[in-house]
């Protein structure tokens, strides 16, 4: 019997002026955390280093070239390892192109503590995915 597959992911805590950029994931039942807020980032390719995956994922998802990434912490849960980096967001939100997900927004630590943020696109509140809320609160 082969060992269980462990998913490895690189996650970006993108911050600007005391707020954090989150992605509202698409409302597709087959994806992880559908219709919930999450940090940008994603699965690492086989053999890919965490920092390289972080730069690639952020560019693929919002067309942003991360100027610097500081390793924050590694989170291990059954079946997944998350490598989390803190990254400054040095451009205006309007200059980013959302290529993956339904919406994005900058949110305060208080909104993150509450665990629900309103989508700028339709003003409806949506939950923050529990693992992402936890790592953000850990960082804050």
From TrEMBL:
Its EC number is 3.6.1.9. It is an enzyme of class 3 (hydrolase). CDD domains: NUDIX_Hydrolase (cd18882). Residues 5-140 form the Nudix hydrolase domain. PROSITE patterns: NUDIX, NUDIX_BOX. Its cofactor is Mg(2+). Keywords: Hydrolase. InterPro entries: Nudix_hydrolase (IPR020476), NUDIX_hydrolase-like_dom_sf (IPR015797), NUDIX_hydrolase_CS (IPR020084), NUDIX_hydrolase_dom (IPR000086). GO terms for molecular function: nucleoside triphosphate diphosphatase activity. Belongs to the Nudix hydrolase family. This is Nucleoside triphosphatase NudI. It comes from Acaryochloris thomasi RCC1774. The gene is nudI.
């Amino acid at each position: 019997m082969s060992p269980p597959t462990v998913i490895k992911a690189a996650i970006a805590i993108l911050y600007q002026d005391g707020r954090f950029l989150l992605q509202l994931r698409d409302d597709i039942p087959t994806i992880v955390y559908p219709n919930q807020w999450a940090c940008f980032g994603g699965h690492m390719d086989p053999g890919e280093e965490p920092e390289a995956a972080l730069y690639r994922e952020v560019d693929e998802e919002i067309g942003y070239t991360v100027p610097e990434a500081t390793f924050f912490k590694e989170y291990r849960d059954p079946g997944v390892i998350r490598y989390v980096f803190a990254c400054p967001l040095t451009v205006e939100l309007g200059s980013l192109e959302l290529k993956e997900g339904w919406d994005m927004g900058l949110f305060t630590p208080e909104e993150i503590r509450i665990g629900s943020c309103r989508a700028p696109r339709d003003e409806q509140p949506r939950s923050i995915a529990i693992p992402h809320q936890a790592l953000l609160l850990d960082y804050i």
